[in-house]
Sequence to fold (422 residues):
Amino acid sequence: MIGEVKRLLDSDLEKAVALAGQVADAARRQEVKCFEGRALRHRGLGRFRQGEMAGSLQDQHAAIELFRACGNERGLGRSLQAAGIVYGSIGDHAAALEHYRQALAIQVRIGDRWGEARTRNGLAVDLMEGEEFAEAIEAFAEVAEAFSAAGDDLWSYKAAVNRGLSQVEYARSGTLGKDAIEAMLSQTLVESASLVATAVELGPRGGTLETYARQLQAEALLELGQPVEALALIDDAMRMATQAGEATVMIELELDAAKALGQVGKATEGLDAVDRAAEMAKASGRERLRARSLELRSQLCEATNDLAGALAAARRSNESSARDQRNAAELRARVARSMMEAQEAEMDLALARAKVESLESSTKRLERLLDAGRHISATLDVDGLLEILAKQAAELLCSPEALILMFDRQRGELTHVAGWGY
Fold:
């Protein structure tokens, strides 16, 4: 039955988790602790890949206690290693390293070469999560060799995929020059194409290898500025990941799709994809992926001139690494600058409008003065002319009425001669 669970882990996670639970229940009733531990360890692996972190940790810790009770060191080492993977995924790197350390000590002592390779793979993943990309690339190369020496070519290929993903992350980190980035990504693209071909050749035995390899191809293409080609690969990989129930890969692919859609001018569709990724990451406790989704959401909002949305996403980001914190800080600063520039632009526009209105008003006054001059030149009717001037004076002064008075020097008083509005 455990063999069937292991087979289903690479094809149907839901069935694998359900069957592992049934096997564990049966073993518990018969008080076969080691067999129950194996079933719980495999159910924990399935739950991890489904994104159920709490359930996965619960299963692994239960398996650890069962293996200790029955003296199964091989099972104990592998459950400690599996717990380390889960802790690393939720960002508790101290707990991850402690579980890896315990697992490695046991596996080296008993000569469990395959288990040791898995634990070293986990340590390499932790290096990548800790942004020590150069060390991670080297470590994954050693892991691939270790799996090959242990007679597991499939896991050797998966380690090669992780090495490629480390190269992509290294290229994204901003610590390499342009030429170095292009050379590394071009190499990654060639290697990922070879891995896809290998996965296709392996067929069902390759399990999820093709999904991971296509994801790697897509990410390399994205970083090389080829989003259209990347989207086609993302669609294929998403279909495979959905069919297998690979929650982590699905989140990462949604983020890749969002980035690619943003690059081809479809930022609104990209926002839909990034929101799906954020929801899945939040539900499964994958804080690093959630932080990535919020960072990407802020960038896409900025691309659509939704500066308030961009700033809100940057503020909500719960960064779990120094690079995430730097990116979020830079993004908040950039959005703040954009908002200040927008406010300044609005003020400039308001000032320009006021100047235009003032100019229009001055032009109208000048036109009325010229009109008054034409009337003075064109008429000999003084009384009629004075009434026209009174009307135009009222309009120029925006007054409902105007009055023209003449000073009588002999009498020393003002005399009404014309008016408007009286």
Q: What stands out?
A: Residues 318-324 have pLDDT under 50 and may be disordered. Strands lie at 402-408, 413-420.
